[in-house]
Amino acid sequence: MTTPPTLSADRARALVARFPSLSVLVAGDLMLDHFVVGRVSRISPEAPVPVVEHDHDEFRIGGAANVAHNVRGLGGRVDLVGLVGRDAAAERLRAELASQGLGCEGLVVDPARPTTTKQRIVTTRNQQVARVDYEDDAEAGGDVERALLGQVSRATARADAVVISDYLKGAVTRSLVAAAVEGARGRTRPVLVDPKIPHLEYYAGTTLVTPNHHEAETATHMRIRTDEDARRAGRRFIERAGCQAVVITRGEHGLSILDGDDDAHFPAVAREVADVTGAGDTVIATLALALAAGASLAEAAQLANHAAGIVVGRFGPATVIPDELIAEFD
Fold it and tell me: From the candidates 79, 133, 281, 323, which is the catalytic residue?
């Protein structure tokens, strides 16, 4: 793999300056992250587990909602489309979205399923003790799917880029991806996918898919240990998914990009890692805005690599603001 020239501070500043004029459709699986925070000072006499003395609760938006949050944090405009239940978690999710300046017009209610919620029990030292998931991962169908498709079609007509955030929680169907691809094709807008491998064949015709290295290995039946391994796996991934390009996120080994013209590898930005939760959401949000702003894939990947380096230094799903991203290049 080649190593393209480092993105200059002037070029990074010019690209990021365009973000506020851009609109991104984020469609996919919405989640509410519920943190039950407490102190641990003893082990339960009933079982060998810690007793957590409750201190407070925190709520954050996750999944596709966190992608939208990242787009908004970087200055872009967002249309968010996804599923919620008819429950208290949905109301909490709407409130959290509103508090971050994100609209709820694209949320489709499915009364037959709960709002996807991840409840984490953590200590005041940010150590996770346990997690409880509330979800129904059956794919949307019937009137619910038709409502999702209608929201996607309307939002695609005004989007500069489309992100499909797939967590296998029911919102992403073959028809939803096809609707996004068809709508974006007429306006030559990029369609990016944060994938789940069981849906690999759904992503045909998309612009860019962003598997992590475990997902890339699973999809291609290849081990990825070196940059050359990543190049070969990326080629096979593109063939299997039917997409135009791939960015493989490789944790501490950085990013590998493949699209025929910009095959390259970018080492991870060195910093202390506090929590990798939501880093993939930050990567795809930054890629979408950068590509919509006119960046090459190599330029977009460098911006995304630095954005990910910032958020992994924070606890829980986090976002990056434009000044922080530009400062990475200064």
Answer: 281
